Hints:
With 110 residues, this protein is an all-alpha fold. Helix content is 75%, strand content 0%. Helix 2 runs antiparallel to helix 3. The mean pLDDT is 90.
Amino acid sequence: IQYYAKAVDINPNKIEAYHGRGIVYHMMSDHQKGVDNLTKALEIDDSVEVTDSMFPLRANIYHNRGFMYLHMEQYQNALSDFEKAIEINPSYTQAINSRKSLLDSGILDN
């Protein structure tokens, strides 16, 4: 985490640093801090000119945040993020499978 924090200190608009730090927090089971970092990455991404090369990262951030929402039992947020990832990249197999698993689980029916 300290390396990502240093990267953010050097360049507070470094999307990849927030993304990476969010993943590390998730791996440490601090899902809320993970979500917070991925949300920050998406906010930065919204403020810069998006190029075609950024679409895979943006879709990946949405998918990863959706996965964190699953761990937090925020299933509607997870579904929204999986759908956003698919909207950005319609051939994103992981996001498609994550959405399908969530819908097939029936948990959203409760």
